[in-house]
Amino acid sequence: QVQLVESGGGSVQSGDSLRLSCVGSGFTFSRYWMYWLRLGPGTGLNWVARISGSGEATWYTESVRGRFTISRDNAKNTLYLQMNDLRSDDSGLYFCAKDRHDYFTGPDDRGQGIMVTVSS
Predict the structure, then answer these.
(1) How many CA atoms lie within 13 A of 42 on its CB side?
(2) 60-104 pLDDT, tens digit each
(3) Alpha-carbon 39 to chain mean position
């Protein structure tokens, strides 16, 4: 079955950096769009970034554009989110998710989540 396991979260200060990782198994990783989602306090579950199977196409929510970078290593079945210049409103529970299908439709299966806390 599909498994997605996130790592790399933690508690940092404003302006610091973190890199989240997500290892996928149980599916052909390179065929799927992958997503980072965030559950923030009082904000619901929102898309943070997404990346195509090849890694050539990416998208970011406006609040993280220029600070976060999504990438993937298909040889390692691993998705990354490099987060720089972190702010307090970046805090939340981050989920790695795969697309419902092997073409772009939207996130479906997701991991257990990893907490990121940014203190000002």
Answers:
(1) 1
(2) 999 999 999 999 999 999 999 999 999 999 999 999 999 998 888
(3) 11
Q: One-letter amino acid identity for 26?
A: G
- In the chain, what is the straight-line distance between the N-terminal and C-terminal CA atoms, in Å? 40
Structure tokens given for 21: 């990782």
Tokens of 117: 């806390």
Residue 46, pLDDT score: 96
**pLDDT reported for residue 48:** 98
Encode 37-62: b = buried (16+ Cβ within 10 Å), e = exposed: bbebeeeeeeebbbbbbeeeeeebee
What are the angstrom distances between the C-alpha of 2 and each of 16, 25, 66, 71, 90?
32, 6, 31, 20, 27
Evaluate the CA torsion angle 25, 69, 51, 60 in order and state its sign: positive
